[in-house]
Amino acid sequence: MSSKKPLRVGLVGTGFMGRTHSNGYSQVSHFFPELAYTPVMQAVCSRNAEKVQAFADQWGYKSIETDWRALIARDDIDAVDICTPNDAHAEIAIAAAEAGKMVLCEKPLARTVAEAQKMVDAIEKAGVANTVWYNYRRLPAVSLAKQIVDSGKLGRIFHYRANFLQDWTISADLPQGGAGLWRMDAEAAGSGVTGDLLAHCIDTAMWINGAISDVSAVTETFVKERLHQVTGKVQPVGIDDACIFHCHFANGSLGLFESTRYARGHKALYTFEINGANASIRWDLHDLNRLEYFDHSDEGIVRGWRSIHVTDGDQPYMNKWWVPGLGIGYEHSFIHQVADFLQSLETGGPCHPTFRDALETQKVCEAVLDSASSRSWKDTGVTSFAV
Amino acid sequence: MSSKKPLRVGLVGTGFMGRTHSNGYSQVSHFFPELAYTPVMQAVCSRNAEKVQAFADQWGYKSIETDWRALIARDDIDAVDICTPNDAHAEIAIAAAEAGKMVLCEKPLARTVAEAQKMVDAIEKAGVANTVWYNYRRLPAVSLAKQIVDSGKLGRIFHYRANFLQDWTISADLPQGGAGLWRMDAEAAGSGVTGDLLAHCIDTAMWINGAISDVSAVTETFVKERLHQVTGKVQPVGIDDACIFHCHFANGSLGLFESTRYARGHKALYTFEINGANASIRWDLHDLNRLEYFDHSDEGIVRGWRSIHVTDGDQPYMNKWWVPGLGIGYEHSFIHQVADFLQSLETGGPCHPTFRDALETQKVCEAVLDSASSRSWKDTGVTSFAV
Amino acid sequence: MSSKKPLRVGLVGTGFMGRTHSNGYSQVSHFFPELAYTPVMQAVCSRNAEKVQAFADQWGYKSIETDWRALIARDDIDAVDICTPNDAHAEIAIAAAEAGKMVLCEKPLARTVAEAQKMVDAIEKAGVANTVWYNYRRLPAVSLAKQIVDSGKLGRIFHYRANFLQDWTISADLPQGGAGLWRMDAEAAGSGVTGDLLAHCIDTAMWINGAISDVSAVTETFVKERLHQVTGKVQPVGIDDACIFHCHFANGSLGLFESTRYARGHKALYTFEINGANASIRWDLHDLNRLEYFDHSDEGIVRGWRSIHVTDGDQPYMNKWWVPGLGIGYEHSFIHQVADFLQSLETGGPCHPTFRDALETQKVCEAVLDSASSRSWKDTGVTSFAV
Amino acid sequence: MSSKKPLRVGLVGTGFMGRTHSNGYSQVSHFFPELAYTPVMQAVCSRNAEKVQAFADQWGYKSIETDWRALIARDDIDAVDICTPNDAHAEIAIAAAEAGKMVLCEKPLARTVAEAQKMVDAIEKAGVANTVWYNYRRLPAVSLAKQIVDSGKLGRIFHYRANFLQDWTISADLPQGGAGLWRMDAEAAGSGVTGDLLAHCIDTAMWINGAISDVSAVTETFVKERLHQVTGKVQPVGIDDACIFHCHFANGSLGLFESTRYARGHKALYTFEINGANASIRWDLHDLNRLEYFDHSDEGIVRGWRSIHVTDGDQPYMNKWWVPGLGIGYEHSFIHQVADFLQSLETGGPCHPTFRDALETQKVCEAVLDSASSRSWKDTGVTSFAV
């Protein structure tokens, strides 16, 4: 391993995403030994010294910080990885870029397009490597979907639909805001399901099917007031509990998106389907190693949806893992993104989705929220999307 | 069988629906022997004498007519069943009602709300028994869904979503209009997928979840011109090839509906799902004997979506058929509707959906089309729905 | 319809199978109008005059008999259809054949090979048309499986496995014998699951994959004593509650069969799977309109089991029914068998499975029971099977 | 991490299993931070110095050996982990035990009962901690199945069935023996699918449902001769390509097991199902995060198989991973076994399956092969199984 070039990472945030990213850094060199770079888990940063030390011990970070500005100031950090709540993304990313650090940022990039635009400006001015963790792209079945669409098998696209259904906030007794629940707080999160869940769906959709041009949306907040953990008061809920929109893609196809945290029975049901003139594809996060594929060119009497168990060595990323039939998990999408980021350092190309790509997704999210509040169609301003 | 009261039926139309209805009349007394009434297949009417005679021979109709006015004029006809293209529904139904006949009409009731309103007025003025063939309600799994929701198991409803996806019109070489293809002709059909497919979804949705208050829709016509079979010319296509809308139900839940004939791989994928605070239900026409049900009150470690094979004697209609595990088919929904219509004659109550119920569905369809053309939300004017 | 030749049927037995056959006779001419023959429901026979009259009224039989010998003696009966408990099959079938009647007999053909052999001798001596109601062959998906295997798509066959799992006799309080429960009585039924359920699996298997040469079996009777409905006493249970066997087919492939009435959760789960060098097929009665098919010659990255919704017009029998996507039910297998029997009268060929075919199945069943009781392999004596 | 006690591991073998175990050692402390012990990847051993160094670099082993005897002789090794082909298990394990090392051994424990018995004798004489890598037990869904059965929810057990179907050896061009293909060589492997695949099924089955008492089996070798990679000659194939057996469990239930490498379309389809009087469970490795469960005590009209997505924090092992709905993979079963082994060091109890447990599984495997070759039932000699 001494022959590899180190990428010294400083992680900000030790929550759920802090764990998935740390796992990515830990695992990547075990499964992608050919890469020239290897991550070095140099430092992790969070406000509570005791907790961050425990996290560092658990994951093997060499040092800790309790102030992200101190982390950015260190010379022994090459890349800053941002896993904080959304309201801290912009400030940290901009400061890191200005300090010449590479920046990896959790999604959504920001709370608003305005914030996101500033981040892109700073990153591009600094010219630093960057990526945003829209991790689902890199599940093998999703990458395979992209590969199939790009191959032209589907022909002209007519429909794209996706949903992301959860049920964890149905209880009116669930508080909002504070530790573990910042996603319920509009100030910290920027929005509810739109930024948290639909942003994933939009990233995948535009990656696979191109730009979304205009949107017509509806949002709903089913539980109007909740106890806020920080203020200790029952306060109005500012986030969208559910969001539905239909849209046009630039290629003329129709899109349909839905997300909610009130779909009893669905833990994290992210599904998408794309229908072309010749073939269709669908996928479901609950069975993440499978891709369903229908090909109209199959002989008629034996034509049907194929359930592809995406675990063969010729399918995306799967030559890195086990043998056919043996599935991998959710966390592997992050390992793959680390691998692709390291690869991009070798080649000098971008690691999509970049900050700029994520800005486009942010534009769609904002158009969706604007459409819902104004009860009218909104143009997104997005005209193309990097693939 | 001599002890049963006859219901002498005159059928208008010998196409796909003419067959399903004829099967209903043929079969009902074999499986519902307790009914006081039995259908007598008195006459069938269609323009082509040779074809209608063959149809009569095949199905056992006692006589034929080639003019529906002659059929209505006959004294030996108690009920007129309308299976024509949509553009003939109103005229026949109104004439039949005025002649004092019971009227059974294929869905959608009419091409427009204005037509439908006239039909309801005529029917109600005549005071004749009536029903509209929104047959899917009476598939056992769908009826069971209704029964479960009515039992209160779901609690407060948050979401209802349905789609009806087909793929039979993707080829640009498919002509429009004329024999077998009147559904492609806006003049004959009134609309495309909205009246043909979404109308089914809307009927089921309002039956299960109550009135739809307002809608926001988008439609698309993917193939702009097609050869018209009757005129022999390539003409603009007037129908909607695809239609998506979201909506509010009167009970505060969000609705999401989609239909298309351009979803490659789906022959007739009518699915719906309803999410309540405590439980959820979903169904799929392609596996019509199954209902999926999730109950949050199940013990946590063994909680999951239940795949209910709706073939037991204590499930709707299934005590009439075979033994547990042995499924029935699509056509049985029509047999059930005949049975329920005969039952309603016995009890004197309505056989839902009545013409009035179907008018409400028509209002939603029209609001959907208006919303799509105006790119704005539309109120439906529907405030309640018979259950 | 006057131009059709009548086949005057006399039905013996008014139970579950009496209903499925009657439905077959009622429906066949509605959906197979091209056939030269049409069934005439001439008479139905059962011991209880009141009940058989009600059955005749319900199904449209023209007359009744309470003694099957009287039925056979009638000149106006062309074909005798036997739906009695198994212990009466031989006597009725032989008498009918000797009277020159065509004979249609429910499966299993008999309780023993000896009985079955006498029936075959009588039938062949009389030279009358005959068939045995192994109905599952004629579900479209099963017929399609046969068609695919015959086309050679699978290549060399390695494995065939089938099971038929039920759960309706688990309660020790269920009585044995008598009305509705003769299948629990070894004297009336001949055996338990072997003749009732495995016989179906064996018929399908040999039809698709050829003769079964030898077998090694185990049986179990989980509930050793039950109240007998007729004697009123708690008596030893004589039937096999469960039966498992493995076997060799004449083509060198391995077979595996299992049946039980103690598989909680399975109402009538008849499944089979066949694995060839190039392709595989599987099917499940609970989703009877689907066939799963795997073709190794599909391109690797998009290879997977196809879920074929067998409802297209180019799939077996389905040009007779509705439109793609709309499923049919269990009962349709009997309609198809009536159609094929009528067709065989036109062509003069046999309607498989004939009595002789069913004798071969009986040999396998008997070898299975012998193997279980002797705890040793048994040759079946079957060397070929009509396809 | 300094506060944890080290377990210094020496790994023998760098193939597929060498990777899965190394991953287990790498990952366990990231996800089970509460454990007192932590693995130290002290040394890895394989014959080829260059390859083993590359493996050590990739996985972070501190040193290498090319002779397993040298590894065992080292003082800085606490535990020897054996991932060699089966023919080396016994010699290494016995030597390691005699050297006072803890021993972790890949399954099957040995090629024969005689070998396995010697291993157990040595291990128990040495009194060293030990475990055998029947990893599938520790997939959360499988552990949940065990928990449910142990809770008594199923009631009296009637049936247990399992199969393990693959298709990777169908081509007659695949060589036998040598690198990557020792599983095809009877001398190296001991047997074919029986030891490789059925051993897994038997371990799970006896863990969940208790001892298997007697067996009746059939085996088949479909491709009789293959090129041997080592000898360079076309030689007879000595392994079983397929194996089927039925059996009695000590609790009176019937068992049915099948394994093959000739089931086209199945990559690694390990499934099992257990039927009790009150409830049933089934599982499928291809969808490893799901468990299906049927509970007859559910209300009749909404009763059905539940599809449990085993990703909640109250389900086995899942409080260590992500959030509900996000699945894990195959490899995690090994991480869990490492965790449980480390836990057993803390508590002083055994880590099942121990060598002794694996000996019982070996007895069943051997009885199966004996039964097949003698075409007769064989007692296994197993009377109980540790749970």
UniProtKB/TrEMBL annotation, chains A, B, C, D:
Gfo/Idh/MocA-like oxidoreductase N-terminal domain residues = 7-132
Q: From the Swiss-Prot or TrEMBL record, what is one GO molecular function term?
A: nucleotide binding
Q: Name all GFO/IDH/MocA-like oxidoreductase domain ranges.
A: 144-282
Entry keywords, A to Z: Oxidoreductase
Pfam families in alphabetical order = GFO_IDH_MocA (PF01408), GFO_IDH_MocA_C3 (PF22725)
Query: Record keywords: Oxidoreductase included?
Result: yes
Among InterPro entries, the record links this protein to: Gfo/Idh/MocA-like_OxRdtase_N, Gfo/Idh/MocA_oxidrdct_glycsds, GFO_IDH_MocA-like_dom, NAD(P)-bd_dom_sf
| Name this protein carries in UniProt | Predicted dehydrogenase
Q: Identify the species of origin.
A: Siphonobacter aquaeclarae
